[in-house]
Write a structure and sequence with these properties.
By secondary structure, the chain is of the alpha/beta class. The chain has ten helices and eleven strands. The model has no long low-confidence stretch (mean pLDDT 90).
Length: 255
Amino acid sequence: MSFRIVIPARFGASRLPGKPLADIAGKPMVLHVRERCLDSGAEEVWVATDDERVADVVRAHGGDVLMTRAEHPSGTDRLQEVAAQLRLADDDILVNVQGDEPLIPPAVIDQVASNLAAHPGFGIATLCEPITTGEDLFNPNIVKTVFDVHGRALYFSRAPMPWHRDGFAAGDQTGPLPAGQWWRHIGIYAYRVSLLNRYVGWEPAPLERIESLEQLRAMYHGVPIHVQPACEEVPGGVDTQADLERMRALLGGSA
């Protein structure tokens, strides 16, 4: 099973500008992510960016870079540009590893690629992990998913789902939850290039606009998405300054 990794690394993130180059333990975050990817079974690892500052840092450390347009509406659109630049075949698999996941386990990357390869009826594969507290379940920054017995995603949302009708109405919404009933979506995706080429021809879907979740565009157009619990714990990414400080503490460094 062959696959390639693309790490989208936008410099101008709205909540944390310059995020790919944020220092963590003496090293820019994007390089931490790349090292994790290199430890996976990927055939190639590319950083896709619209900023020469990011490109210069990655190239200085021996990395492969593709310059992409700045105006992409989503990371999936950026990934399709990479596939076009590399002239990949329709059945090639690309894994999108977010540039703000410096602790992503390599085994998880291999898992999502293998899942897509093993399920030819699916256009996309992704992963999840248990939500164990009401605080996380009701946090709109933590995306939730529900899926069927075959691992086919039924929906993704920022809202708590499924809704425990009696329990949530009657009591505390911040306490511990039983494992295996609520799932956090982990933002790693494996795509077939043929799906990426279709995806960019679709207008953003109403559900996608409402939730600000790009995978809902694919679901809106009937693309099945495979979901499976991650084989290892994923510590989470960096969206805010608080996340960055947490990651610095985990990796033993500061800016």
